[in-house]
Write the structure tokens for this entry.
Amino acid sequence: MKFVDEYRDAARAQEFAEIIRRTVSRPWTIMEICGGQTHAIVKFGLDELLPRHVTLVHGPGCPVCVTPLELIDRAIALATHPGVTVCSFGDMLRVPGSRTDLLAVKARGGDVRIVYSPLDAVKLAHELPNRQVVFFAVGFETTAPANAMAVVQAQRAGLRNFSLLVAHVLVPPAMAAILSSPDNRVQGFLAAGHVCAVMGCREYEPLAAKYRVPIVVTGFEPLDILQGVQQCVEQLEAGRAEVVNPYARVVRPDGNPAAQQVLRTVFRVVPRKWRGIGEIPASGLGLREEFAEFDAEQRFGLAQLTAEESPECQSGLVLQGVKKPHECPAFGVRCTPEHPLGAPMVSSEGACAAYFRYRRPPPSQPRGEPANRPS
């Protein structure tokens, strides 16, 4: 509770916590999917505000964190290629590959540029006709429509020097993989509001029915998250498993049809490897055949480049909600933002980065000591 008092609606947050405390009668484990939600939870101490019976675990909703090691290595290979400019969002530059990262390649003279939109990369391809411009397309359903539009615009403009290194992943298959795992302990979900703003919330209904888990669409403010926890706990206590949308100010049941249409036009569903987790069937997006000329992996012959995960990094267990970051022996010792073993320590949405920033214990306190929480 050390951070919640900094929030402008601290009194209302305490009210939500009291409602949850009066409702809960047995232990429940709830997973928030999005890394943005994780950072809000840890920053404002929302998990410490909850009764001990309610445990929040952190899911794989950090797109930077789940981008597989081999795709990072492929981006690095492109950045060292003469005549190639690699464009990326800033939080990809520190993500470690097998031996180095994009920031180090940039420091050694590689043409790596931070952009704020894939359309910036399209514009750059116009301005640099003698260079190949590759945009590292990372993200969930939230960022995929803009990347699809970049391909559409490049095709319309006849650009032959623009391509995507595609690393898009989809949320529902990851949820199904977690629920199917023998190590699963998740009993309810807080779904990511921005993903649902694009895709709607109806696609979660088969998951709720099949696995008997409540799914609550949630925003990113502390009160949004606490309301999501409250509604999830109420369903669990009542034995219900429904998809509900208290984030209706942003999310419509059917999402954004225009964004979905451009996704269907440009991308197809493919298997995708997730960093630390492995391959999940039908969990990613790849370019359709009619847009294959914009596929950087095909253009530069990168498909055969593979990599092995570090056995020391336990990010896969963190991303599946099996472990909390501070339960990893390397956390804060051999894995820090300056020398990360995995992406969750350097991504702006990574769970390990959140714990390192907001939950590092003082030197006198052992790592892994439980927080003081109300009973």
